[in-house]
């Protein structure tokens, strides 16, 4: 019984907090630099799936408990003695677990903000760069440790990195395993902003407040168009934009935006 309780506690947890229109997810497994266990990944998938259809939410915030954001998936525990996965296990399971987390963060119509301290490695790095906005303190480190550990990249790194920073820089991170500090990550366009540690929380809350006060439907449609149009030509891109515009123009926030413009005041959007 004692061993079972210890194993359960060691699996870590993802804290889920609703703060008005903000959904806060806190990755908490501090003794392993917030490395993700199967239980934690399942929680992220379930929570983000529910958030996608929650009309009361307007922004998602993901952070790590303690000194680190997330050091990736806990492959050491997964491949410990006597627990090696059977052949084909990764192909069957990963698309519905770790890969699904990245897909949800990338595709959910709510804006997603990550706050990074310490390590953002492996899936932790990819989770941060899949978000719409990532803020990191200047001591944070972004690392894709796949090749240095002897296996090929996963969780979207070979798709996300070239699009964000170009092929050459992507190869530096993926093939050479170079670690990138927050200042360089911001300079490359890998993340939104690097800030001094004592300013990170304030900068994050200001951004969350701004996004939560925005026209949620229009924000979601714009996010979707940006991502879809990376793979299209101009004509199809404008068709995608037109689809989003058609939906956005039917919202109460659209009417409020026009009224505020006519009345020369700031709009008060309600996410509807």
From TrEMBL:
Q: What is this protein called?
A: Enoyl-CoA hydratase/isomerase family protein
- Alphabetized Pfam families for the sequence: ECH_1
Q: Keyword Isomerase on this protein? A: yes
Q: Which InterPro entries match?
A: ClpP/crotonase-like_dom_sf, Enoyl-CoA_hydra/iso, Enoyl-CoA_hydra_C
Provide the species name: Nocardia gamkensis
Which family does the entry's similarity section mention? Answer: Belongs to the enoyl-CoA hydratase/isomerase family.
Q: Which UniProt keywords apply?
A: Isomerase
Which top-rank group of organisms is this from? Bacteria
Return one GO MF term: isomerase activity
């Amino acid at each position: 019984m004692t061993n079972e309780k210890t194993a359960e506690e060691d699996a870590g947890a993802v804290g889920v907090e609703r703060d008005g229109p903000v959904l806060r997810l806190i990755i908490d497994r501090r003794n392993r630099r917030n490395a993700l266990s199967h239980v934690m990944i399942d929680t992220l998938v379930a929570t983000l799936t529910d958030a996608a259809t929650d009309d009361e939410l307007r922004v998602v915030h993901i952070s790590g408990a303690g000194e680190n954001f997330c050091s990736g998936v806990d492959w050491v525990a997964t491949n410990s003695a006597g627990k090696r996965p059977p052949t084909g296990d990764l192909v069957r399971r990963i698309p519905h677990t770790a890969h699904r987390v990245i897909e949800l963060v990338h595709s959910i119509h709510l804006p997603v903000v990550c706050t990074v301290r310490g390590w953002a490695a492996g899936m932790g790095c990819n989770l941060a760069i899949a978000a719409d906005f990532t803020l990191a303190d200047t001591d944070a480190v972004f690392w894709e440790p796949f090749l240095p550990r002897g296996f090929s990249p996963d969780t979207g790194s070979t798709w996300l990195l070239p699009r964000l920073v170009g092929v050459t820089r992507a190869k530096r991170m993926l093939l050479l395993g170079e670690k990138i500090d927050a200042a360089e990550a911001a300079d490359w366009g890998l993340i939104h902003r690097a800030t001094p540690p004592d300013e990170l929380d304030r900068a994050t809350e200001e951004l969350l407040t701004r996004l939560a006060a925005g026209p949620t439907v229009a924000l979601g449609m714009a996010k979707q168009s940006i991502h879809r149009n990376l793979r299209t030509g101009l004509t199809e891109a404008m068709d995608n934009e037109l689809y989003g515009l058609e939906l956005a123009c039917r919202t109460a926030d659209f009417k409020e935006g026009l009224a505020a413009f006519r009345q020369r005041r700031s709009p008060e959007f309600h996410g509807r």
